[in-house]
Amino acid sequence: MNMPWNRLDADLFERAQALLDEEWLARDADLAPLLPVVLERGVGQDWHKAGTFRHHLAGVARSLALWRQPRDIRLLGLLHSVYGNAFVDLVKFDAGSERGRMQALIGEAAEHLVYLFCTMSRTQFVQKLLAGELAADGSMTLHRNGPEPRQTITLTPYEVAAFAIVSMADSMEQWFSWQEDIYSRFPHVDGTRQQSVHWAASLWPGPMRPSSRMLGQIAGLGLALQHPGLREQLPLPPVFGHCSQALDAGAEAAAVALYWSVVQLDQPLVDADAAIATLEQAVRLNPWVGEPQMVLAQLYLGAGRDAEAALAAESALQCFSAWGNAWDKRVQWDAWIAWTRILLQSAREGSWPQRLDKLNNIALKQ
């Protein structure tokens, strides 16, 4: 059966390469002036899901930069939680007294997006967007956070599109098995589960398995951008066929289980045939993330199947370049890309080491 390999977009890969080192933010003329202001609030010391709050804010902004979003949207990505929100109790700027300072720093239009994103009901926003509850022009009416009676607000089509795209990047950057367990079935969270009963699910960071259901939700947010009132508002992210494809929930869950069975060495170890077949099926079920394809490329190389390894590695690079964040969060996005480039180089040269110790010596040839 043919594999759903992705072709590497040279322009997208070049944009991704420019964002690989941590200094990319300091080189961004729009975002760099905000760094000292944000860092002085201690974001590099705050815990946040799979890293620190700084890692999270920078990771969201990185995806938005990769997706060629305009200045105000990239600023929103970097600052999307600084006034706090219903999900995290991390208030870095007081919305009651510091909005003027933020407006002076980034402009009133960008600050308005940040304030609105932090204070609206993001749970209700995701619920409505996934359900297609939009007006004919793409606008949306929902509530602000806070006690009842909550204020009703109406988002413009531009704001809906902006918040959908930032939500896609936000979810991809942070979601993995620990968050999936404690925040199960978001945006319809079951609030009855007690930590004392489900203590095993609460132990951070847990096994760090990729999420079994969030990627399909991100695809749903992307599909919502095909609404006639939203489609032309902002550049469509280059994921899920530029937001044109869904990911079936059953296929996503099965693909994660198959991938995890291989990386946890639950497949026969003497020969790689079973592991290769398992990963091939995972990729067929979910061709939108790079990690299963990257591991498959390495198994192909070990089996002497260089041509197939090159196709898998190139396809994995395309996925990594499209997301700007890792799906499997055991290592960071730039590390996944670095190893995948080694695999692609080795596949093209037919030079994969035959001895275990030589794996420690391989390097990318510039």
From TrEMBL:
One Pfam entry name: DUF6817
Domain DUF6817: 38-122
InterPro entries: DUF6817, TPR-like_helical_dom_sf
Protein name: DUF6817 domain-containing protein
Organism: Comamonas terrae
